[in-house]
Amino acid sequence: MSYWARRVSGAALVLGMVLALNFALFRMMPGDPVTSVMDPDFSPEARERLRQVYGLDRPLYAQFALYVKSTLSFDFGVSFLTGRPVADELRSRVPNTAALLGTSLLLSASLGTWLGMKAALRRGSLLERCVLWSGALSFSFPSFFVQLVLLMALASALPLFPLRGSLSVPPPEGGWGFALDYVHHLALPVLSLTLLGFGGWAIYVRNLAVKVMGEDFILMARARGLPRRRILLGHVFRTMLPTLLTLLLMSLPGVVSGAVITETVFSLHGVGRFLLEAVTGHDYPAAGAAFFLLSLLTVACNLLADLLYSVVDPRVRLDRSAR
Amino acid sequence: MRRLLLRLAAIAALSLAAPGLTAGAASRFSIEDYSAPKVKDLYLVIIRDPDAQLMALQNGQADILGDIQRPVDVDRLADDPNVNLSLAAGFHGFFLGFNNRSFPWDRVELRRAAWQALPREQIVRDLFAGYAEPLSTFLPHVSPYYEPSVRAYPYDPDAARRSLADAGWTLDGDGVLVSPDGSRVPAQKLLCPTASVAPTTAELASRAADALSAIGIPTSTEPMDFSAMLSRIDERDFQMYVLAWQMTRDPDSLYALYSSKMDIPGGSNLPGISNPELDAVLNRLRFAPDATTALDAASDAQALLAELAPVAPIYSRYSVSAVRRDWKGVLVTDRVTADNIWSLLSMEPASGPMRPLYLVQEEEPRALNPFTSTSAYDWQVMGLVYDSLIAVDPYTLETIPWLAKSWKVETEDDGDGPHTVLTFLLREGARWHDGRPLTSRDAAFTYEFLMKNKPPRYFDNVDNIARVETPDDATLVVTMKNVSFWHLHRIGGLPILPAHLLERVSDWRSWLPASERHPDDPSLTLMTGSGPFVLREYRPGEYVHLTGNGDFWLGRR
Q1: What is the predicted ipTM?
Q2: CB of A135 within 8 A of CB of A113?
């Protein structure tokens, strides 16, 4: 069996296990969607009717068959909590979450990588100390605190940005006005996540670059008189690239799993809160669908990382062909 | 100074627990003082974070904030000269529950002593900064059926110890109570949510455990995930728990909470109290044929519950709301917050031209499906769009006319046993938002739809309907299977939907009327009602846009 056939069949096995665990684990949690209805005006008969409506009165194997069918057809059923099709719920939320977290991931990664490289090149300088300190600070502050401070400072005291949501109430008419309004609303949440995220990248990249720059082949390149820029981009950065790529791709599933706190502070319609409420509210269809899609994305990113490794590092190809 | 005044208002609300506010109190309120809404555009803006909600109100980006929960926020707004605050007592009740089914909580004297050992006033002062009411009854004082003369057990741990000693209880060498028959009280676990999820409740539980331990009931808290806690309570696998209930204005919820018939799987008698005398009184309350019998039974039930102490009441939370001062026409009483329907009908700018009204919605509506939605945030929207036959007086919480201008509640017996017959006379001139006339046939069609499909939310409302008849366009007769005065509220309070749209609904479970356009009028959605506001747009996660219904029946008299 070829390498890729083995990898793909392994991924399919993982997804199959996720599918089964998603069904079993949520049902093993204490309580169920009907137990959580605490209302003296809801009689035992009404609860039984609710159980029927949710399909929880059917045998487990029948529930499992329905779950597998709806998941594999990407239909996902109807959310217990919202009463809307889960696919519609996710469709309406993923764009906001992806725009918010995708943009902030790209900005944090770019800024962090650039600052990390600069710091590694100027070891012992004020710049390096600033990068390390600001990196540690941004990494260690709780997100809700930073976001609330930004909201108070830049949306309330100095109203440069909107306080809430992804659109004005009512939103401006016309394509450009609408798009600009959307960007304006997302700017502060993106800024906050970038501030919170760049530090980790900067410190990681700086440490990695320092390590690579201490390698013999870099000394050799210097001895050969190669230009500094070529050493940096062609040797140091290229060596770091597979590791950074892994980090970036493994962060991608988080881009759609949402950021509960950010979505709450900025009142954004995103996946994070939906997922949290689905788990805490025993919303089996919603939680099952969301976790399955996240697993699918994680597995896909893993495969993509493997594929890109062979593009950026020829040694990976050689190793595989040797096997 | 305003902060002090507000706290004084909170204290004054306590003293309003007076006979003058019980059933039968004369209302200052008349529906005739209202007409169609004055505002043209109403936006329910979704802002989830409490700090962002406050900033929006203070910056003028929102005009009404309906329910402020954190005392620190109330204090902050009290200092804002642009904001008016109001405080309403409601139907929230927080209780310490005992498992009455087994030792030691099957002993009534121990339950009473535990009740007496709880420092309720101190808890309210420390944890809620005074913005809550120490609760010592089984119905909140705002209920029209509240009975002020029932016995309560004020905080007095010494009296609790004495009463136990008088009943033959002793303390062993470890300071633990021993019953008159020689049984030592075993270590008790008090179920509560974790501090990270519900810090106030966790702290309250901790204080209750300390208070009980101090009189010889060795108690420690058992914090856990809230769902896990509900599951344990539902399975009756507990010794003690802390839990809040949101009750309604009808006291027949006492039947669901304390009748032994409800100590069954899925039933709400969680403490498991079983007392024949109490059962008889609660039965009388549940199936009272008229208001007078209901009032008597409610009083008797409260008196008996105070004697039996199946749970110990602790506190009831106030609802605090805030409205910007540049609006006038706000109706505030000690029982409803400022974001009520009457305010929304009459609010207008204090000066200058009309402008949109922005109301903060703390969570977004979920389905906006009148058959499945149980969320208060959904009903904040749907309650403005759909009408029911009756309404509630905001001063006395008594039933007042709405779509029905009058009604009769009669008991008949045509051979099948006695049953209640409700006859409603509907108003003339009521129309749906699409211009079609609203008749008794719409109401009948709605009830029959609910009877046929049995949505869980309405199961208990319509399960006892025997038949619905419409002798003419203005008269609706609903014959019930049994006798109960509460049928009036359960039936009269149902939202009435247009038959011409309802007959197109194929699957009520997945019906999303706010997301589909009206077949004849694209400016409307399928959420077409007869209420004071017309739904124009719901943008998930952002806002709900409604416009005032200029053709509202209340303005067409």
Answers
A1: 0.85
A2: no
